From TrEMBL:
One GO cellular component term noted in the UniProt record for this chain: cytoplasm
Gene Ontology MF: a single term: acid-amino acid ligase activity
Family matches, as InterPro entries: GH3 (IPR004993), GH3_C (IPR055378), GH3_M (IPR055377)
Positions of the GH3 C-terminal domain: 304-394
Name assigned to this protein: GHDC protein
Alphabetized PANTHER family for the sequence: GH3 DOMAIN-CONTAINING PROTEIN
Coiled-coil region list: none
Residues in GH3 middle domain copies: 211-280
Cross-referenced Pfam families: GH3, GH3_C, GH3_M
């Protein structure tokens, strides 16, 4: 409750109209977890139906929530549990806007797999025909989708996302560059290992920073890089500008764990540290002990994209070849990378090899192993449109999708979407 109130206070101070009744649309999938319509403290803020969020089909939930958001032209806040959920909802808009416009015009929610008839009937009773809004939707979508969010909701002030770090950064970047041009993104909370640790009191800052609240969970910190005989430090022992590994005891006496999160202290607010998440140590590629962090691999991939004219990265995952077993071939252990691109249908062998070259330039240890032959050349695969949306559905969890795959069932699913 304290976190929700701090969030609402910060949001209202930065964007005064953001707390208008029914001025927020919520795009959030919470399978098997019935809850109030609101993601936070005040259900009256939301114009989207809450009961649908607990349905087992992620795609159906996001589509129904999108339809309700489209009904409300005077939105001030667009809120998503994850940036990936907003990304996938807007992908549905791109693919199905004629059908969505027809449902708005007729006030009729069509039957679809994954939407029980009883729930559809309840939702249908809340719909009324709106031909004018349907015509506006058709007009704006026919113009294209660059900046579509502000064109559909001209009073929109801010996009609120549950996470903007790690794997979610890719979706935030893509949304800022295309659909959500000109809108600020606000990530209000910092949660790790099931515990709420901090709140972002600065909604207008482009890089999320979180005030660690001392009575929400018991936090300890390990200096980075690791010392020979590490000693955990407490909140009042941290230094500005330094990085620390996070150790959390969510509730006293229950459990104590190293989260794998690395934080940088950016300052202090009333003697409490303000931190910025830097990386997640558990998300690393390592076939020979070279340990390439997810964040740095992503930077190398973005640099490679600049060498593929016209290409825009939609999504990607990496996997170590040992997970493939014999199907990876007789070559030395290597990285398998699966990417979904827009604007480019295929890549030559030379273009594919650019990513391996960038990794060698960015990571001397990787270059050394490649030179010795103990790590084989990276294999890059293109997957079809929508492959990663289906992968997120298959995960069956509202948590962020891992960027380094460790589960064979998920790997087999993405392999089935390879086009070249």
């Amino acid at each position: 409750a304290q976190g929700s109130l701090l969030y609402l206070d910060a949001l209202g101070a930065a964007f005064p109209r953001a707390l208008s009744p029914r001025g927020t649309a919520l795009l959030r999938w919470s399978p098997g977890c019935p809850r109030a319509p609101a993601g936070w403290a005040l259900p009256s803020l939301y114009c989207t139906p809450g009961a649908v969020a607990a349905l087992p089909s992620r795609a159906v939930v996001l589509r129904v929530q999108l339809l309700w958001a489209l009904r409300q032209r005077a939105l001030h806040v667009l809120e998503a549990g994850l940036a990936a959920e907003l990304h996938d909802a807007l992908a549905t808009l791109r693919a199905e806007w004629p059908q969505l416009a027809q449902e708005l015009a007729l006030g009729r929610l069509r039957a679809q797999p994954g939407l029980p008839e009883g729930v559809r009937t309840q939702l249908q009773a809340l719909l009324t025909p709106d031909a004018a809004r349907a015509a506006e939707l058709r007009t704006e979508c026919a113009r294209g989708f660059e900046g579509i969010v502000r064109r559909l909701w001209p009073q929109l002030e801010v996009v609120v996302v549950g996470s903007a770090q790690g794997t979610e950064r890719l979706y935030c970047d893509a949304l800022r560059q295309a659909d959500c041009q000109g809108l600020p993104f606000y990530c209000p909370f910092y949660q790790v290992a099931g515990a709420l640790l901090g709140v972002n009191l600065w909604p207008e800052e482009p890089v999320p920073q979180f005030l660690l609240c001392p009575d929400w969970a018991f936090c300890e910190f390990l200096p980075c890089p690791a010392e020979e005989e590490p000693r955990t430090m407490l909140l009042d022992e941290l230094w500005e500008g330094r990085e620390y590994g996070l150790v959390v005891t969510a509730q006293p006496g229950e459990y104590r764990c190293r989260t794998g999160e690395v934080l940088r202290v950016t300052g202090f607010h009333k003697q409490c540290p303000v931190v910025e998440p830097v990386r997640r140590e558990s998300q690393e590629l390592s076939v020979r002990g070279e340990s390439i962090p997810e964040e740095q691999f992503y930077q190398s991939l973005c640099r490679t994209l600049g060498m593929w004219p016209g290409a825009r990265l939609v999504d990607y995952v990496c996997v170590e070849s040992n997970l493939l077993g014999d199907s990876s071939g007789p070559c030395a252990p290597h990285y398998e990378v699966f990417v979904e691109l827009q604007g480019l249908r295929d890549l030559s062998e030379g273009q594919r090899y650019k990513l391996d070259q960038c990794l060698q330039e960015d990571f001397p240890v990787y270059k050394s192993f490649r030179f010795k032959g103990s790590i084989g050349p990276l294999h890059l695969h293109l997957v079809g449109s929508g492959a990663f949306a289906r992968l997120r559905e298959a995960l069956g969890s509202p948590m962020p999708m891992p960027r380094v795959l460790r589960e064979e069932r998920l790997l087999r699913l993405i392999q089935g979407s390879v086009i070249s």
